[in-house]
């Protein structure tokens, strides 16, 4: 009996020891993850090996012109071991990850937002930055600003409900200085332009200017009573200082264009904060970069707003970003935002998102985010993942939103995990239903994400339409016996037409069917103006060439090789 008791005591003692060991190991893992989350900031400032040249970008061209940063070396992506236990750089309690929806082009229907908001949330987004432009349902004197397809007030309420349902914070954005082309294009507002011939920027000295943007801001703020942040834009104020009003002001103020900018920015930021207590203002930072910290501090702007430091380059100068953070801290700002790009930051007419370009941009931002321990007195509020749809109001569309979804997933997962490692890739794969292949610029597989049909169809059009049409136009008998000249004068040998007519008809029929199916997919997400524009810019030239050749071949064939006669319709 004694032996049995001893055995039971021994078993009990073993169980206690096992539990104690598990507890110690658990505490060790937690402590290790906390240490990993605070990476050595000093390591990111060291220069690394060079990478391939970056392509020309949109807003970052302005950044380089200010500081000539394109001549400085880049700190590339740190090596990450596969399966490495890298702690997330941020959580819902840390700096926010905000997805930017640029509505000045290809604004999606609300029914698509019902599908993409849950996707944003599952990928790790904390909010959405809504850059309304002409899609906001302005009323009263501002009705003229509305797009024919602008959202209704009911649409806005539904968007707000969708955001709340998916735990996404909405941040409205209204431009108040530059990028006001959608306003200043109207003849009613020509007199408010800074440069009479151009619709880009507002004349800050005209009494009607401030009244106009205050009315715009007020209508949007009234529609977003729960918004904690309000973005007032204020980037790329082109031509500032060129109006006669500005020249007169500069003569009396030592030619200080920076102070002129600050006067207008402070006026609007103060209006926003006084209109609703507790609202915090955001603005893009590029116009602040040439202004001295002392001048910025004296203006009072740091008490009213937080700058967004943006850079969309693949070869991002992280040292230069550190310099800006230091300058803004010296100016008195208590917090900053960062801005990367998941699409729309490369070519002005970019059709397909370059994955490695966007990934490298985010990996550089991760290095900067890890360095923020160097600036304990300034808070990083979050990072805006911009998805530009146009470079400005009068330019063509960039990549469609469904085309940029794999890039967005890659970028959000990289920010969440600290790198696009195996864990991040697996999570993105699980959510999207396809494998992101950075080196191939594609997400392989059928894809389960909303808009995946458009994603795959755009890829097919992008890689095949023009190539196949050009190949046919190089056909021996089309080049030699059915040129533009032949078609103009209805002059061709029926025997020659017979060599290519079947191929021409087959290719035309194939693409007519494909494009019709694509159009139906597009119409499910986009308004008619977007569908028409995308078709005109990316499809119609090639399709019209096929159609014209097919019609001409059929008509000229019936002439049986007769003498030349000028083509008639």
UniProtKB/TrEMBL annotation:
Protein keywords: Hydrolase
InterPro entries per record: GH (IPR017853), Glyco_hydro_20_cat (IPR015883), HEXDC-like (IPR038901)
Chain coiled-coil ranges: none
EC number: 3.2.1.52
SUPFAM superfamilies cross-referenced by the UniProt entry: (Trans)glycosidases
Pfam families documented for this protein: Glyco_hydro_20
Domain Glycoside hydrolase family 20 catalytic: 150-292
Swiss-Prot/TrEMBL catalytic activity: Hydrolysis of terminal non-reducing N-acetyl-D-hexosamine residues in N-acetyl-beta-D-hexosaminides
Enzymatic class: hydrolase
Similarity-based family: Belongs to the glycosyl hydrolase 20 family.
Protein name: beta-N-acetylhexosaminidase
Organism: Salmo salar (Atlantic salmon)
Lineage: Eukaryota, Metazoa, Chordata, Craniata, Vertebrata
């Amino acid at each position: 009996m004694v032996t049995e008791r001893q055995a039971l005591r021994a078993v009990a003692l073993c169980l206690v020891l096992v539990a104690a060991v598990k507890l110690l190991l658990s505490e060790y893992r937690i402590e290790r993850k906390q240490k990993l989350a605070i990476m050595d900031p000093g390591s990111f400032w060291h220069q690394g090996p060079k990478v391939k040249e970056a392509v020309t970008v949109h807003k970052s061209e302005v950044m380089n012109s200010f500081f000539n940063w394109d001549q400085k070396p880049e700190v590339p992506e740190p090596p990450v071991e596969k399966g490495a236990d890298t702690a997330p750089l941020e959580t819902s309690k840390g700096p926010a990850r905000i997805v930017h929806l640029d509505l000045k082009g290809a604004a999606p229907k609300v029914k698509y937002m019902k599908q993409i908001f849950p996707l944003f949330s599952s990928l790790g987004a904390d909010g959405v930055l809504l850059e309304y432009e002409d899609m906001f349902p302005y009323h009263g004197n501002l009705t003229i600003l509305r797009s024919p397809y602008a959202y209704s007030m009911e649409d806005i309420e539904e968007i707000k409900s969708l955001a709340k349902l998916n735990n996404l914070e909405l941040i409205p954005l209204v431009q108040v200085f530059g990028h006001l082309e959608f306003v200043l294009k109207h003849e009613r507002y020509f007199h408010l332009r800074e440069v009479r011939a151009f619709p880009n920027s507002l004349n800050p000295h005209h009494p009607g200017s401030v009244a106009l943007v205050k009315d715009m801001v007020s209508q949007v703020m009234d529609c977003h009573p729960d918004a904690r942040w309000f973005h007032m834009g204020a980037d790329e104020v082109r031509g500032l200082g060129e109006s006669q009003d500005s020249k007169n002001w500069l003569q009396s103020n030592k030619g200080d264009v920076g102070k002129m900018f600050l006067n207008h920015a402070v006026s609007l930021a103060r209006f926003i904060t006084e209109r609703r207590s507790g609202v915090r203002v955001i603005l893009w930072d590029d116009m602040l970069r040439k202004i001295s910290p002392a001048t910025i501090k004296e203006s009072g702007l740091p008490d009213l707003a937080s700058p967004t430091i943006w850079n969309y380059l693949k070869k991002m100068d992280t040292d230069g970003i550190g310099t800006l953070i230091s300058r803004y801290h010296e100016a008195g700002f208590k917090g900053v935002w960062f801005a990367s790009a998941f699409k729309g930051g490369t070519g002005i007419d970019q059709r397909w998102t370059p994955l490695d370009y966007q990934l490298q941009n985010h990996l550089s931002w991760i290095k900067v985010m890890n360095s923020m321990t160097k600036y304990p007195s300034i808070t990083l509020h979050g990072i805006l993942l911009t998805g530009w749809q146009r470079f400005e109001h009068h330019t063509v569309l960039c990549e469609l939103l469904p085309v940029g979804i794999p890039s967005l997933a890659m970028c959000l997962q990289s920010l969440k995990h600290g790198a696009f490692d195996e864990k991040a890739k697996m999570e993105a794969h699980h959510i999207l239903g396809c494998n992101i292949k950075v080196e191939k610029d594609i997400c392989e597989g059928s894809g389960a994400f909303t808009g995946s049909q458009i994603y795959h169809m755009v890829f097919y059009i992008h890689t095949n339409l023009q190539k196949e049409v050009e190949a046919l136009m190089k056909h021996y008998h089309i080049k030699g016996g059915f040129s533009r000249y032949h078609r103009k004068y209805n002059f061709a040998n029926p025997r020659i037409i017979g060599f290519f007519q079947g191929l021409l008809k087959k290719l035309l029929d194939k693409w007519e069917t494909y494009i019709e199916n694509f159009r139906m997919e597009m119409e499910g997400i986009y308004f008619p103006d977007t569908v028409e524009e995308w078709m005109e810019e990316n499809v119609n030239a090639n399709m019209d060439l096929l159609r014209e050749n097919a019609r001409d071949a059929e008509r000229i064939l019936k002439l049986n090789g007769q003498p030349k006669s000028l083509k008639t319709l």
